[in-house]
Amino acid sequence: MTVTITRLYQSHAEARSVVEALEAADVGSRNISVVASNADDWHKDKKPATYPDKDLDGRDDRAEAAGAGAGVGAAVGGTVGALTGLGLMAIPGVGPIVAAGWLVATLAGAAAGGATGGIVGALTQIGSTPEEAEVYAESLRRGGAVVSVRADEKDKGRIAGIMDRTSINPMDRRKAYSGAGWTRFDPAAPTYNADMVRKERELYRR
């Protein structure tokens, strides 16, 4: 039985470290997906692809047809490489993100308005509860990152243990947001800029 394990992180740097740890533990890159906010401009490639590039790997999908099925991570030498090398997509209410792995297709639907419920709907599709998905979406808006891994049930404990080392408890973060007046993710809300992301992260460093 395959399960999906999803965890929340404060920044793309923390997500990257977790992905490196997962790959070092022999978790295949094709089973890892990463979504990271680019509100603070850590990923500098601002030019959207003008050719068909649904998997956001920076390559023309038509030229990749022969290698279909290899997975986004495998196509660019591992998910960590993908995380630093992919282009951007913009999701309503979240803003610019960089994404890698199997979750990209679902997120592309959210970006295009084709996924029911937008980003929250996309996250619930992969097994997050609606409450978790709301917090994940809001955290992405505020500069966070999400890592999701597809794994066999027998490996769940081992993989979750790696991911939990630096992850954020979504219910704790919900309480923090609610204490400041937040009620739920709003796809019409203004997106964060780099300065707002910096201030947000400072709140939790204290």
Would you mind describing this structure in some detail?
With 206 residues, the protein is α+β, with helices and mostly antiparallel strands. The protein is 40% helix and 16% strand. The chain contains nine helices and five strands, in the order E-H-E-H-H-E-E-H-H-H-E-H-H-H. A five-stranded antiparallel beta sheet has the order 1-5-2-4-3, sandwiched between helices. Helix 4 packs antiparallel against helix 5, helix 5 crosses helix 6 and helix 6 crosses helix 8. The radius of gyration is 16 Å and the shape is globular. The termini are far apart.
Task: Write out key terms for the chains shown.
alpha+beta; five-stranded antiparallel beta sheet; 5 strands; 206 residues
Give a nutshell description of this structure.
This protein has 206 residues and is of the alpha+beta class. Helices cover 40% and strands 16% of the residues. A hairpin with a 3-residue loop joins strand 3 and strand 4 (95-100).
